[in-house]
Amino acid sequence: MPKIKTVYDHIRQNNIKTALLVALFPLIFIALVFLFTWCVVPLNDAINTTISVAIPTFIACLIWMVISWAFGDSMMLSAVGAHEIHDTDPQYREVFRSVENVAIAAGLPCPRVYIIDDDSLNAFATGRSPRDASVALTRGIIKKLDKLELEGVIAHECAHIGNRDIRLDMLIITGIGVTAFAADLIYRVAFYGGGHRDNDDNKSGAVLLMVWLAFMVFNTIITPILRLAVSRNREYAADATGAHITRNPMGLANALRKISGASRTKSLDSMKSMAFACIAEPGARGFMGDVFSTHPSTEKRIARLESMV
Predict the structure, then answer these.
(1) Is 299 a catalytic residue?
(2) pLDDT tens-digit profile of 261-288?
């Protein structure tokens, strides 16, 4: 009989995944920059270029990680226009109580509760640790789910908090943000530098082009693959843990049925890096469908939950 994974198993797995991500992100990035620049310059020049690109990029990542560690949750909540509610707010008192009750059942401190003014059906959790976590719910998900379904969603988010997924989210969002900004900066320098170019300038332009291509491959292919390596299994884990917290797998299963097809959140349209933090992908699935989706298919998630009944 296979061993049943506990919350501690999931926490340990996420710690391992975090360490692997910390190692893989820079190693793959360095390899890409080196290989691309080596196509247009000699070996020594490729090594020097890789060092000159990697060091400032890593410094920027470290600085941004420190900022994210201190203010990342606030930045995420601010980006979607979320506002905090309290148990004194008559309109949302029952919602706050549901979060409080689920947190108690999960053995967690009560997270802060935020509302996103959007009629879509979505939710996410953020924060550095369970002690300073927040749960954000869209206005639509509060209106359209019944009490048991909403508790299922809240339990799913509390499971992410308890499993320490929120720390992993902030790490990935930080890395994606810095490399995307750097790619845009290099693109502008390479393609809009303008002016007359001599041979040395042409060589420098070719190197910049290769560095930009390395960033693009890293951002559009490698990062999604690394992200998917940790994203889907933890969604299944959060579903299972959430169902265990409420003792009602069908509550979350029914919620996912309603959420499916109505999860697009306009405030997240321009923030693709936050998609995997949500309970359901907040935008339309891309050309490759499920292959590069941040979440398992809703049908598979529901089937697993129904098997728990």
Answers:
(1) no
(2) 787 777 776 666 677 788 888 765 554 5
Per annotation, catalytic residue among 94, 100, 151, 157: 157
- Over residues 136-162, the mean pLDDT reads 95
Q: What is the pLDDT of residue 287?
A: 45
Q: Enter the pTM of the model.
A: 0.78
Q: Return the percentage of the chain with pLDDT > 90, whole number.
A: 34
Q: How many CB atoms lie within 10 A of CB 247?
A: 9
- Computed over every residue of the chain, the mean pLDDT equals 82
